[in-house]
Protein 1
Amino acid sequence: MAPSLRAKCVNDSLNAVIETTDNAISQFLVSNKPPCLHRSGEFVYNPPMKVALIFGGRSGEHDVSIVSARSVATALHNGGHEVLPMAIDHKGLWATDGESQRILNGSGDRPDQALSFTGAHRLNPTLLKDSFDVAFPVLHGPFGEDGAIQGLFEILGLPYVGSGVAASALCMDKVRTKKMFENDRLPTAPWVTVTSHAWRADPDALRRRALDLGLPLFVKPSRMGSSVGITKVIDTESLDAAVETALRSDTTVLIEQGIEAREIEVAVLGTTKPRASVPGEIVPGDDFYSFEDKYLDDRCQLIAPAPLDAETTEQVQSLAVEVFRLLGCEGMARVDMFLEKTTGKIWINEVNTIPGFTSISMFPRLWSLSGFEYPALLNELLRLAIERYNNFRRI
Ligand SMILES: Nc1ncnc2c1ncn2[C@@H]1O[C@H](COP(=O)(O)OP(=O)(O)O)[C@@H](O)[C@H]1O
Ligand SMILES: [Mg+2]
């Protein structure tokens, strides 16, 4: 056997032994830890934990969620936690345990590497059994990031990672968050709202209001993500098609003035005392940061930390924390901003309460530069979930 091959075999067997031992240790720790008291009193944060990892879902970001969940599951295992996978199919049906595990075991962190499956239950029976410590929804977009599943956890009395019902619903809704920013005089790009009803009733009036903002325009569904349904409109003739495209994803559409800007993202962690990460920068490979650019083309660059001067860094960090507090976020969020190229002005774009979690995603990358490597980041998120749950119980 060639030396390098022998070395590889020895390495592989060693890794297998280490992996088996790690699993045995983590199983021992999980099965011997005291119960978490989330029915009879205060919840005890007592890692390692049994984590219900929920992924897939009904939104257009179903595949993105699956690949995010794979990274989260690996990091949770590395941190010694036990993962109970719970996959939800495109129609909202929950897969069996075996099927959920199969989807999670698939390899790849690109959405086109997600596996397809069909669910079997209207609700996962394990959710009702109290057989885990905390729920971790790694679900992006409608029904996962918008307060819907958070409401289910509240009804079941389960601690869960991330923001509560109201903040999740608010951050999912671009029109409503913009109204909040406007109310607090925080900078957000000028916009008009278009409902499907108003568009059918009087498209001319809406066209005029939209075009008054000036070209280019960004036309977006109010409650979506991953750039699904978004069009950059560079001429008057393309506006109608852009509105129709956005209306396929939501009944409310946002038409926004295009800002010629650098795209800056800051990750925030916390409950009562949120902290900001170092900022990162997205350099789209496409005309804008489109779905293809985010997940398929491999042309965009994620730069972390963003090359910004100290003053701008401080400004984007404190704005991110201000926005996190304003919207009532808890646990985690990624606050996305525009840094206008000509003026240096900072505009808030949007807030993601369940940001992408693949190994190359910005949220874990920014925290790895700001004091939390991936497994430590997940420990912190679990700890914050319990802190939030206990804060709420004390009221
Ligand atoms: N007003 C705008 N000016 C310039 N670019 C924009 C604007 N709005 C959106 N974009 C571009 O479209 C991308 C996706 O828009 P965003 O509002 O973040 O939606 P999503 O929730 O789908 O990520 C942004 O990252 C940016 O590249
Ligand atoms: Mg975005």
Protein 2
Amino acid sequence: MKTPSQHVVVLGAGPAGVGAAYQLMKKGVARVTLLEQQERVGGNAGSFLLDGVYCDYGSHRLHPVALPEIMDDLRLLLGKDLLYQTRHGRILLQGRWIHFPLKPLDLFLRLPKPFALRVLADIAKKLLPKPKKSGPETFATVLERGLGRTICEEFYFPYARKLWGIDPEDLAVTTAQKRVSGSSIGKILQKVSKQIPGMKPPGAGKFYYMKRGYGQISQCLCDAAQSLGADVKFGARFTAIETVGGSVKAVRYEQGGTEFVVPATHVWSTIPISILLRGMRPEPPKEVLDAASKVAFRGMILIYLVLDQDQFSTTDAYYFPQESIPISRMSEPKNFSSATQPVGKTVLCAELPSDPGHPDWEMTDEQLGKRLLGWMEQAGLPKPVGVLKVLTRRLRQAYPVYRNGYDQHFECMDKWIGTVDGLLTLGRQGLFAHDNTHHTLEMSYAAVKCLSADGSFDHAKWAEHRKDFETHVVED
Ligand SMILES: Cc1cc2nc3c(=O)[nH]c(=O)nc-3n(C[C@H](O)[C@H](O)[C@H](O)COP(=O)(O)OP(=O)(O)OC[C@H]3O[C@@H](n4cnc5c(N)ncnc54)[C@H](O)[C@@H]3O)c2cc1C
């Protein structure tokens, strides 16, 4: 077979990067070099082994709404390792543990009656005519109008403060549109009704998972790309993109203390858009670099406890919306795959939203482990039998923060990137999109459909795909 004349350098080996590499190789339209700064595949959606337990970077599940063509590839590549599982989550609401996703009977029986009455009063108020509100819309105004004060004050506002580290009034409307699938009472009731037997749509309360952890999605795509000839370099940190006359010419990266240069006809970047822009040579205009300095990602500390017991509970993930407990979620990885191995040991993984510079970020594993045990006690969870080990991991870019006005900064960066011939930004970090794995895979599959073997890229088709991506709503 003829060697393709085009050479795509893909930045980042998260799902978007490996998905693009695999599809490009499969279609045979380009040679591929994939650069990943870490020594492992998967990005935020990767996995690692901890005392024999496959662990993810926080609770991850593949939602059954993934596109059929993506599911077909994963079924083929993962074979029997692709599992179809039932969700067993619990959320701490008003001091009580309630099934999550919410179930009507459980909600009715377990929610404190005064709380339920206040929610009903909010719904009744919504039926009354209201004076038009002036002032700009934010996450807070949209949710309060859709859900009423009680649900917002008891649930979404404290959760938002904890997750993004800023006040709900400072969060843009996009956060409500993209991040909160139940942004009105009607939508919540619709979601809850989907859990009623007989009204359940296919896939409700179910998810896909992998025998060797969530990272097996990225691993299998990366292996397949490599077996088709993609050159994957780990420990290879992108440093710069050289352009000549507005077209991409080469990529510089650092590996093991040495800088390398690789020629490229195209660069597809899935790394944070702000980092990409800072590496452009010649430099972008000042206003573009300014915009890059104004968008921020929220970080996260993952605290893993290795326990001296076979299973902590049958719950796969516990959700903590209240601000008084700083973790947002805690999962038991073995339960995601119904793993029976290793015998006599399990792991808990807690998600603590935080940022570099915050005192939590600097704490030792032992300090964070101790704090986690305190929060578990506060939430009324059983005391683990014995903690054999504490380990922490830190994600610098867990969630894009949609602060009011972020969209203008993003647009400024995105517009300029669109002027560089051969350069594409995609994926969760690249499009500053709070998206699930199936969404980011969709982006990479779509990008490959826009590239022809002669190197031409169908920008009109890509623009249509970008419009579709804007309709993505995150599944929890
Ligand atoms: C706590 C948490 C829970 C989540 N739960 C779910 C879930 O249940 N279901 C779901 O579908 N999604 C979930 N997600 C989202 C999921 O993790 C993302 O959709 C997915 O990781 C996005 O893939 P990506 O390839 O776009 O980006 P990333 O996974 O972020 O990959 C980007 C890659 O770029 C690399 N990189 C960065 N800078 C450089 C550089 N200079 N040089 C080279 N490489 C670089 C990074 O190391 C990384 O590997 C969750 C996310 C978080 C944080």
